[in-house]
Amino acid sequence: MTDSVLIEGLAVETVIGVYDWEREILQQLRVDLEMAWDNRPAAASDDVRQALDYAAVSEYVQAFFERCQPALLETAAEKLAADLMVTFAIPALRLTLWKPGAVPAARQVGVRIQRGDWS
Ligand SMILES: Nc1nc2c(c(=O)[nH]1)N=C([C@H](O)[C@@H](O)CO)CN2
Fold first, then answer.
1. 68 and 79 in contact (C-beta within 8 Å)?
2. Which mutation among 24, 26, 99, 108 tests ligand 1's pocket best, with the greatest number of atoms within 8 A of CB?
3. Hey, what's the signal peptide range on this chain (predicted)?
4. Among 44, 54, 85, 92, which is 20 to 30 Å from 32 by CA?
5. Which residues line ligand 1 (CB under 6 A)?
6. Could you tell me the distance, in angstroms and rounded to a whole number, from the CA of residue 52 to the centre of ligand 1?
7. Catalytic, out of 30, 52, 99, 107
8. Residue 105 CB neighbours (<10 A)
9. Radius of gyration (Cα) for the chain, nearest Å?
10. What is the ipTM of this complex?
């Protein structure tokens, strides 16, 4: 699959972190997504129902972080990737979760995973 639908820098607020003090506060994450999708049917029909609707996916990601509040970025990434692939029938995706401010000397830190079949 050579086509994709992209979401970059989606801001979400959630409870996340391994330390006790982190369980008491909201922190911002930034989400980048590259989702494999054949864009030709949407282009041919000019119909959003044939597209992978990035607005709908963005809303889903926001709702996910309201109900899923894990300690590790790794856990959040794995669960979110699995949920998105099932809910939207996405064959493959690359997901990056950034946690700006977690390491003050770094611009941001995060994790990136790739799941599914990109062929
Ligand atoms: N690989 C990871 N390392 C760390 C994580 C994480 O989620 N994945 N989390 C923390 C703390 O929660 C940290 O962000 C607090 O500043 C430390 N390392």
1. yes
2. 99
3. none
4. 44
5. 17-19, 22, 72-74, 99, 102
6. 31
7. 99
8. 4
9. 15
10. 0.96
